[in-house]
């Protein structure tokens, strides 16, 4: 007796089900992690020492990256995470306050911004409140104008005193080709639309 077509499909389905790896449940370790926020120039920080109102201050990070704090003077804050600055301040203030309970919070983020210039409908500085890519930045700028050279867009990024240039071909990315060029922008990036 010949096996039916349905029996054949059933055997294949069972074979596939038992040979595929079991799905892996997402765990805390497998979940993607985000980098800790790095303090930048212009950010406003709230620093408080528990039970010491005189040492609780709201301070702005100056353009040179420093903050001024009572008893400690000027301290470099820019380029450090909140945890790193908290640890440094706690260590330094312990010379004046026994067993200090110090906390640092970012009250206002002013350093997270990108710039879009050139042939867009609304050029300027755009605050970053979340991760955005080049297409999203161009959308925030109202899109490119009809006279823009859409396939000659550049992203300029300052890293360690060097300027890196990334090229962006609007037509390729918007049509779903070469999506890796639609990079996530970082603080201070400049999108130039010629």
3D structure, described in words:
This protein is of the alpha+beta class. It has helices at 5-19, 82-93, 134-140, 170-174, and strands spanning 44-49, 52-60, 66-69, 73-76, 102-108, 113-118, 124-127, 153-159, 162-168, 190-193. The model is unreliable at 12-27 (pLDDT under 50).
Which structural class best describes the helix and strand composition?
alpha+beta
Rg (C-alpha, Å): 26 Å
Number of strands: 10
Unreliable parts: 12-27
Largest beta sheet: what is the strand line-up? 7-6-10-8-9
How many angstroms separate the termini? Answer: 74 Å
Largest sheet: 5 strands, mixed
Helical residues, percent: 10-25%
Share in β-strands: 25-35%
Q: Residue-averaged pLDDT, rounded?
A: 84
Following the backbone from N to C, one meets helices and strands in this order, namely HEEEEHEEEHEEHE
Defining key terms:
194 residues; alpha+beta; three-stranded antiparallel sheet
Topology:
Blueprint: H1 5-19, E1 44-49, E2 52-60, E3 66-69, E4 73-76, H2 82-93, E5 102-108, E6 113-118, E7 124-127, H3 134-140, E8 153-159, E9 162-168, H4 170-174, E10 190-193
Parallel strand pairs: 6-10
Antiparallel strand pairs: 1-2, 1-5, 3-4, 6-7, 8-9, 8-10
Summarize the structure.
The protein is 20% helix and 30% strand.
């Amino acid at each position: 007796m010949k096996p039916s077509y349905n029996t054949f499909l059933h055997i294949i389905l069972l074979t596939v089900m038992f040979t595929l790896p079991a799905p892996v449940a997402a765990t805390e370790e497998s979940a993607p992690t985000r980098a800790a926020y790095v303090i930048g120039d212009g950010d406003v920080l709230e620093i408080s020492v528990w039970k010491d109102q005189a040492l609780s201050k709201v301070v702005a990070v100056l353009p040179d990256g420093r903050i001024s704090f009572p008893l400690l003077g000027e301290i470099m804050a820019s380029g450090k995470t909140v945890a790193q600055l908290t640890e440094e301040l706690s260590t330094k203030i312990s010379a004046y306050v026994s067993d200090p309970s110090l906390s640092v919070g970012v009250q206002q983020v002013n350093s997270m911004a990108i710039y879009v210039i050139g042939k867009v409908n609304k050029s300027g500085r755009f605050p970053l409140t979340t991760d955005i890519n080049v297409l999203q930045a161009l959308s925030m700028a109202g899109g490119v104008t009809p006279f823009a050279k859409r396939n000659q867009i550049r992203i300029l990024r300052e890293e360690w005193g060097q300027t890196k240039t990334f090229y962006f071909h609007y037509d390729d990315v918007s049509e779903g080709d070469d999506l890796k060029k639609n990079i996530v922008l970082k603080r201070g990036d400049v999108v130039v639309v010629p």
